[in-house]
Amino acid sequence: MSANADSGSVGPSLCKVDNLHQQVLASFPLCQMIREDLTQNPRFCKLLAMLSQHVECHGLTLKLEKELEMAERDLQTQRLRWLCSESLHRLLREMVFEHSVRKHLSNVPAEDDMFYETMKHNLLVGQCVRQLDLSDYFKQDSPPLLGLDAQQILDLASTQKDLWKTRQRLPRELEKHFLKKCFSLLSYYHPGDEREGVKNMKLLHLSGQLDGKIKRVVCLKGKSYESAALLQQQTCCYISELFGCIQILQSLILDHRLKAQKEIDKNKIEYFEAKCEIVIQKIRAEMMEIQLDTYTEDTISAHRKITEKLEAELKASQGEKHAVDSMLSSFEFFGKEFEVLAEEYSRLRQEIDTKNWALKEFSYPTN
After folding, report:
1. Which of 39, 162, 173, 182 could potentially form a cystine with 158 if both were Cys, beta carbons 3.0 to 4.6 Å apart?
2. 141: alpha, beta or left, given left = phi > 0 and alpha = psi -120 to 50?
3. What is the DSSP letter of 333?
4. Partners of 13 in the β-ladder
């Protein structure tokens, strides 16, 4: 009963630990951690679990995450305002450019020419005023650009009458041009020749379709981000497992090499011994062949006769040497006085030989 109770208590505890590990790994997907790291460091795992209640998965605190969301919403609003104004400005410039192209290709009514020239002039004035405003903002202590201020540029704008006419006509022209661009976008997104009513119906649903596409792209980006984080985590696990397998393989290779090295060395020694024996036998065979080629039967018989003669002379020389040694030993018996007489005798013999040579030289007949 106690064993069953213990096993029952261990099971839920293991499940809690496993759930804790899963919670920590899910809360910090950017950290390169695996389950073994959390198992080996339980206190660090508990610290991360407590930290996950105050930190988002991206590493930001909850308060900072809210502030970041508010800042992003504000930035999105500012971007939308800027995009509206920039789109309108570019659309007006495009209308002016198209009018200038049409004017060079065909005759344009004077009213249209006046409208677009007024719009072009006022766009240029507005751009200059904006540049002056920016220069005043960034360089408040310095004088204005070219010594001009915004009011001086505004004085160069068109007359009130021309501005009033332009403003009265501008919404219609903007609507026409914008509708033209929308139709061109629709023809790109849904190519085909259709009636204007069908195009208008499709144009009403185009923004919703584009929003759906954008949301799908954002969703796919989020999934791609999650997949990249999961892939990075799996890559770290794979690399760690691969290193473990490499270490096991290295240990196996080392053990096998140490066991087989003794047998390999023994075989190498036997091989080299046999090779040395073969070389020695080959050298001996070459020496025997050289001796057989060098010493014939006549040469061997002559060498034998020479050897016998030399041995006889050697015996005779040894006998003479023995006789001289015995004579010398008898002379040594007389002591130092005989040594003096022997030196005197050798000196006299040398003088006699010298005088005989001189006498022979003087008695030699000359021409």
Report:
1. 162
2. alpha
3. G
4. none
Show the beta-strand stretches assigned E in the chain. none
Backbone conformation region of residue 331, classed left if phi is above 0, alpha if psi is from -120 to 50, else beta = alpha
Q: How far is CA 152 from CA 127, 143, 159, 356, in A?
A: 14, 15, 15, 150
Closest CA to 46 of 74, 17, 67: 17
The tokens for 22 are: 């899963």
**Cα–Cα distance for residue pair 95/90, rounded to 1 Å:** 9
Determine contact, residues 30/58, Cβ cutoff 8 Å. Answer: yes
Task: Quick: pLDDT tens for 22-45.
Answer: 767 766 666 666 777 677 777 777
Contacts of 237 (CB under 8 A, 6+ apart): 34
Exposure on the CB side of residue 281, measured as CA atoms within 13 A: 6
No. of H helices and E strands in the chain?
Answer: 10, 0
C-alpha to C-alpha distance for 135 and 144, rounded to whole angstroms: 7
Instruction: With residue 123 as reference, give the H or E element that holds it.
Output: helix 110-138
Query: Hey, which residues does 55 pair with through a beta bridge?
Result: 61
Question: Which range has the worst mean pLDDT, 54-68, 141-155, 171-185?
Answer: 141-155
* Cut 0.70: pTM above it: no
195-212, pLDDT tens digit by residue? Answer: 766 667 776 777 777 788
What gap in Å lies between CA 13 and CA 5, rounded to an integer? 13
> Exposure pattern of 220-259 as b/e (b: 16+ CB <10 Å)?
eeeeeeeeebeeebeeeeeeeeeeeeeeeeeeeeeeeeee
Calculate the alpha carbon distances from 11 to 35, 40, 49, 115, 139 in Å: 18, 19, 21, 84, 72
Residue for token pair 């047998």: 263
